[in-house]
Amino acid sequence: MRADVMGQPAQAGSVAALVEQARLASLGMLVAGVAHELNTPLGAMHSNHDVLQRALAKLHAILEDDVVEPSELDEVRRIVAAVRNILDVNNLAMERMVQLVADLRNFGRLDRADVDWVDLHEGITSTIAILGQQARRVQMVTEFGVIPLVRCHPHRLNQVWMNLLLNAAQATPDGGRVTIRTERRGAEVRVEVADNGSGIPPANLQRIFEPGFSTKGGRVSMGLGLAIVREIIEHHGGQIAVASELKVGTTFTVDLPIAGPTGNGEDQPGQHGGEA
Fold first, then answer.
1. Phi-psi region of 21 (alpha: psi -120 to 50; beta: other; left: phi over 0)
2. Segments making up each domain of the chain, as ranges
3. Which residue of 95, 120, 214, 267 has the smallest Cβ count within 10 Å?
């Protein structure tokens, strides 16, 4: 049996303090995730640095003499080849760290105005990258349509994608599938986050947007996460709905006005091409 629920309007000011607490908790989770993702490339570079020091010490010892013996020349070749391989590994590690920092910067929109015309696909893609291991344990599939830029608070919408994608990943078994779809629907853009997890019991489905509601071991164990999601979407003049079927999966649907929270569509940029 499939159940559908629309997120009901939140009472003004009723969740403000709880939302702020949950944002701080989300920040802590994000920092922990970034630290974990940085640890692997940094560990590789740290280990390689020691190897490079020892290799250069050997080269220095060989080249101290004016004459290099044939046997020493072979050793030089081996050291140079090893150094080249180490540098290749370090390049990959640095590229990973640079990309992670770029994804983090994009997620927080540190270089953008508070309200801006934004490519939602870019924010969703960066959020998936920031999720790291949580995203890699399931199959994250993007089915992006052709949508325009949306006028919004970028960092707040990225928090929506973070909560919805993390919730979907946690509700989906290893190797499962989470699908993110986007499309334009008139004056709005629709974003769907669908998983093939265990689904939400109808009794819980009626309460998942309540601040502080959670179940032990269930899909709504995020507690304040979905209350925050609803508060942010309503602030943008949008709506969120959820449909779920036990043992089949759950889909969250977010509809956002293209013109933004104030409805001011002046100087609207053109369409943004996506991938089908």
1. alpha
2. 2-34+114-272, 36-104
3. 267
Comparing C-alpha atoms, which of 247, 254, 157 is closest to residue 209? 254
Q: What are phi and psi of 190, to 5 degrees?
A: -105, 135
Angle at which helices 120-131 and 16-63 pack, to 10 degrees? 70
Is residue 207 packed enough to be buried (19+ CB in 10 Å), middle (13-18) or exposed (0-12)?
middle
Task: Identify the CATH homologous superfamily for domain 2-34+114-272.
Answer: Histidine kinase-like ATPase, C-terminal domain (3.30.565.10)
Q: How far is CA 247 from CA 2, 7, 182, 237, in A?
A: 10, 22, 24, 33
> Could you tell me how many helices (H) and strands (E) the chain has, helices first?
7, 10
Q: How far is the CA of 173 from the CAs of 103, 135, 217, 244, 253, in angstroms?
A: 26, 12, 13, 16, 21
Task: Using 70 as the pLDDT threshold, list the residues of the chain that sit under it.
Answer: 1-34, 36, 103, 106-113, 212-224, 263-276
Q: Which residues pair with 250 in a beta bridge?
A: 195, 244
* C-alpha dist (Å) from residue 206 to 5, 8, 200, 203, 242: 7, 10, 10, 6, 10
With b for 16 or more beta-carbon neighbours within 10 A and e for fewer, the 167-196 pattern comes to bbbbbbeeebbbbbbbebeeebbbbbbbbb
Quote the pLDDT of residue 110. Answer: 55
11: which 2 tokens?
């009472």
Radius of gyration over every alpha carbon of the chain, rounded to an integer in angstroms: 24
Sequence-distant (6+) residues with CB within 8 A of 103 are 126, 129, 130
Q: Say what the pLDDT of residue 71 is.
A: 77
CB 174 within 8 A of CB 138: yes
Instruction: Give the 3-state secondary structure of residue 188.
Output: strand
